[in-house]
C-alpha cells in the first residue's frame, strides 16, 4: 500500500533532482535499436564464420584419419 501512495505523492525539488537521469547518445531510441541490430548482425556473422571453420576442421580431421596416406 505504501508503494502505491508513494507513486502519487508530489516530489520535492530535491527528490526530482535525485531521480533525474540523462541518456547519452546511443543509449535509447532509434539509435539504440540500430546499435543493437548491428551488434546482433555482427554476432551472427562471427558465429557463422566460426562454425564454418569448426566444420572444415572436423571434415579435414575425419578425412585424414579415416584414410591415412
What does this structure look like?
- This protein has a domain at 25-69.
- 75% of the residues lie in helices and 0% in strands.
- The protein is built from three helices and no strands.
- The termini are far apart.
Quick take:
With 69 residues, the protein is an all-alpha fold. It contains 3 helices and no strands.
List the helices and strands and how they pair.
Blueprint: H1 2-8, H2 13-19, H3 29-66
Rounded to the nearest angstrom, the radius of gyration is: 27 Å
Low-confidence stretches: none
Structural class: mainly alpha
- Between the first and last Cα atoms, what is the distance in angstroms? 79 Å
The percent range for strand residues is under 5%
Element order, helices and strands?
HHH
Integer average pLDDT: 80
Number of strands: 0
Number of continuous helical runs = 3
The helix content, as a percent range, equals over 70%
Net shape: rod-shaped
Major pleated sheet: none
Q: What are the key terms here?
A:
69 residues; mainly alpha; 3 helices
Amino acid at each position: 500500500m505504501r508503494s502505491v501512495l508513494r507513486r502519487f505523492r508530489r516530489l520535492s525539488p530535491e527528490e526530482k533532482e535525485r531521480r533525474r537521469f540523462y541518456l547519452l547518445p546511443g543509449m535509447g531510441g532509434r539509435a539504440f535499436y540500430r546499435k543493437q541490430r548491428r551488434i546482433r548482425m555482427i554476432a551472427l556473422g562471427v558465429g557463422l564464420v566460426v562454425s564454418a571453420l569448426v566444420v572444415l576442421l572436423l571434415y579435414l580431421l575425419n578425412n585424414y584419419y579415416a584414410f591415412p596416406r
